[in-house]
Amino acid sequence: MISRIAWRNILRNKRRSFILIISIMIGVIALLLTDAVSIGMMQQMLTNQIGADAGYIQIHKKGYHDDPALKNSIANTAPVRAALTRDGGSTSFSERLRTFGLVSSAYNSSGVSIVGIIPREEERITTVHDYIVKGHYLSNNPGDVIVSTATAEKLKVGLGDKVVIMASRIGGSVGSEACRVVGLFETFDSGFDQTHVYIPLPTAQQMLGAAGRVTEFVVNPVSPKMTDTIAQRLRTGLSPDFEVLTYKEMLPLLVMQIQLYDQTIYIFYAIIAIALIFGIINTMLMAVMERTHEFGVDMAIGMSNRRIFRMILTEAFFLGSIGTIVGLVISFTIYIPLSHTGWNLAMFSESLKSIGAGTIIYPVMKASSLINTVVIIPLAAVAGSVYPAMRATKLQPVEAIRSN
């Protein structure tokens, strides 16, 4: 009975109810889509970093992560290969030799991270080959190098031009190699582009006097969900001379940023809820004042204060629920196509590249966001109606009946 009366009261003043539902709906849409775009951007930044360079798991000689020097490279790769082979088809892996050095042309030079790779293995691990904009990806030809378009512009070189790569050898002397540019890449991250060049692993080993050595094995599980399980299995299978790190340990700032966002989003929920509460208080208080005569009659014929209180709270709950449901429907109508096509923010490409995000953002809507919205918004609407309901229960029947 209370629910029926509350519903009729909502329909009685359609304009006021419609305005309140619209305000709740807009709040829900803003909350869900902002949350989805923010989560999508941060997850994309993390996925981009994993895909471009870090991988999901890396294996080093113990101490390399703290001191990434050639002296801490892996001299005997057989135990690592054996441990990775035991995992069968659950992983793919690649080995690298990485060092810091200088790439120079006749016009300029630039400090870079020189990465020696096995091209076929690396293609299964990273996505740099997908970002080649001119020329082609590395082959096994000695002396080939791929650089970013930003580095090529700085060095004033193009496809087919020669550059000289220099770095400290494992013995302390300086090694150098003349390489020909065979490809230019341009990724999502301008900082990454400016600091990475790729050469074949044998070329890097020869230049650095590090025959047979690698600094890291990069491992990708078949499913990212298996990362922690496989990492633990590798730690168990390898001797203490090696360290096995997951992307959470290699990219702590990005992981922490996502975790921090998961906590701080509740502040956004609180802001929306508080704004909604004040809107409900104002609307419901106005409705109570307009219906003073009605409440007086209800009290006179025996309706208890408790039922009047429940009726007003029920009205607010109905309004909050309708606004939430409509907001969810519209949010999904916008979200579903965006999750497939992405939101093209090419006008902000430079800013997005500076933080490692792509120019197209793919929103991600979590189940927890939906649950929080469905729970918090109607409860906020009910909370906002408590004060007007209390005002209604304090009315004196005789005075209320006499009021106009």
Tell me the radius of gyration.
31 Å
Q: In percent terms, what proportion of residues is strand?
A: 15-25%
Output the structural class: alpha+beta
Tell me the domain tally: 2
Please tell me what the overall shape is: elongated
Question: Spans of 5+ residues with little confidence (pLDDT < 50)?
Answer: none
Main sheet: strands, sense, barrel: 10 strands, mixed
Whole-number mean pLDDT = 86
Q: Estimate percent helicity.
A: 55-70%
Number of helices: 16
First-last Cα distance: 26 Å
Order of helical and strand elements? HHEHEEHEEHEEHEHEHEHHHHEHEHHH
| Total beta strands | 12
Task: Please characterize this protein's 3D structure.
The protein has 404 residues and is of the alpha+beta class. The protein has helices spanning 2-12, 14-54, 78-86, 119-123, 149-155, 190-194, 201-208, 227-237, 247-250, 252-290, 292-300, 305-341, 349-354, 367-384, 386-393, 397-402, and strands spanning 57-61, 91-104, 109-117, 132-135, 144-148, 162-168, 174-185, 196-200, 216-221, 242-246, 343-344, 360-361. It folds into two domains: 2-49 and 254-402, no CATH class; 63-239, no CATH class. It is 55% helix and 19% strand. Helix 2 (14-54) runs antiparallel to helix 14 (367-384) and helix 12 (305-341) runs antiparallel to helix 15.
List keywords for this structure.
404 residues; alpha+beta; 10-stranded mixed β-sheet; two-stranded antiparallel ribbon; 12 strands; elongated
Short description:
By secondary structure, the protein is an alpha+beta fold. Helices cover about 55% and strands about 20% of the residues.
